[in-house]
Amino acid sequence: MTGASVKFSRPAQGRPRRRALIALAASATALMGAVVLSGFHAELHDIDPAGSDRASELTTTERIGIRTWTVATGITVEPDVTYGTREDGTRLDLDVCSPASDPAPGETRVGIVSIHGGSWARGDKSNDDWRHVCQWLASEGFVAFSVNYRLVPAVHFPAAIDDVGLAVEWVRAHAADYGIDAARIGAFGGSAGGNLAALLGTRGEGTLDAGSRVAAVAELSGPIDLTDAAMQASGAGELVEQIALNYLGCDRLADCPQAADASATTFIDPSDPPVFIGHSESEFIPLRQSTSFSEALSAAGVANTMQVVPGVGHSIGILDEAMRGKVADFFRATLTAPASPVVTDAAPAVEAAPAPLAAG
C-alpha cells in the first residue's frame, strides 16, 4: 500500500449519511427478524467457528496478484453492514466499497458481490487481500459488496451458498440505496468463493434480475465440480478431496449425494449468465476443473471466456494488473446493459503468471 487515503464510513458519519441510516435500519430489521425466528432464544453472534481465521487464502508474503494494486484515493468503505441473521443467531455482514465520485443524476451503477476464498473454512471479507479486491472493484466504477458467509466446521453445505444467495437478494432489495441497477448485479469469487460465485450463476432458471440470480460471473481457481466422478477425472489430489469432504460433511465423495448440489455444472442451462474463468496451469486446484466448466457452459450455449496463466498461482494470487483488466472489461462488457453480449474465446489464452504461491 501507498500513502493514498481511503475513507471508511461509520454509522454516525457515513458518505452519504443516508446510506448509514439505511444500513442501520436494515441491521435493526435483520436483528428483529432473528429474534422472531428463534423464538427469543438465539444469542446473536458473529461468524467465528472454532479453528477458523481471517487470513487470506494467499499463504505467501510475496507481493503478487491483488497485492500489486495500489489503493486509489477517495474510495469509501462502509464496513459490517448486516444483510441477514440466521435462526441460530449468526449475524451475516458485508462491506460496501463505493467509487470516489457519486453517480451523475439519473445514472445507476453496476453492483458486484465479492466472495472470499479459504476452503469454505476460513477467511474474511475484510482481510487485507479481500478488502483490496473490494476497493479495486470500486476503483473500476462498480459498487462492490464484499460478503462473509458461515464457515466449516460450524456449518456444512448448503449454508455458504444459502448465505451468499441471501446477500444477492439483500443487494437487489437495497439497489436504489446504493445507486445501482437491480438488473445489473454480478458476482466475483476466488477459490472456494469461485465455487460459490459459479453456483450463484447457474442455480435457478430464467430471468437474471430477480431473487438471487446474477447477471455475470467472474471466478478464479474455483473447485467447480465436487462430485466423485469429476474429482477423479480432473486429477484432484487428496488435499482438494479432503477440503471438499469437510465442506460437504461427508466421509466419501462416492457416497455424498450433496456433492452434485454443490457443483455449478449440475445446474447449467441456456438461461445462465456469461462467465469469466481464470486459472493457472499448475496450481493445486486442477486446471481440468475449469476447462470442463467452460466446455459444459459452451455446450449449453452459455457465453464464457477462459484465461489460463502459467505457473502455480491461486485465486486472487493471479489477479495481477493484466487479469484485473480482463475481469473489469468482462464486467463492463456484460453488465453495461442487462442483455449485453460477451464473446466466447475459442481457446484459452495464456499469459505471464505471477510468482508461485502456496495452496490455500
Describe the structure.
By secondary structure, this protein is of the alpha/beta class. It has one domain: Alpha/Beta hydrolase fold, catalytic domain (Rossmann fold). Helix content is 30%, strand content 17%. The protein is built from nine helices and ten strands. It has a ten-stranded mixed beta sheet with strand order 1-2-3-5-4-6-7-8-9-10, with helices on both faces. Helix 8 (287-299) links the parallel strand 8 (275-280) and strand 9 (304-309). Helix 3 packs across helix 4 (192-202). The longest helix is centred in the N-terminal third of the chain and has 21 residues, at 17-37. The protein is globular. It starts with 6 loop residues before the first strand and ends in a 10-residue tail after the last strand.
Key descriptive features of the protein:
single chain, 360 residues, alpha/beta, Rossmann fold, ten-stranded mixed beta sheet, 9 helices, 30% helix, disordered N terminus, AB_hydrolase_fold, BD-FAE-like_dom, Alpha/beta hydrolase, GDXG_lipolytic_enzyme, hydrolase activity
How are the secondary structure elements laid out?
Blueprint: E1 7-8, H1 17-37, E2 76-85, E3 91-98, E4 109-115, H2 128-139, E5 143-147, H3 159-173, E6 180-190, H4 192-202, E7 216-220, H5 228-234, H6 238-248, H7 258-261, E8 275-280, H8 287-299, E9 304-309, H9 321-335, E10 349-350
Parallel strand pairs: 1-2, 4-5, 4-6, 6-7, 7-8, 8-9, 9-10
Antiparallel strand pairs: 2-3, 3-5
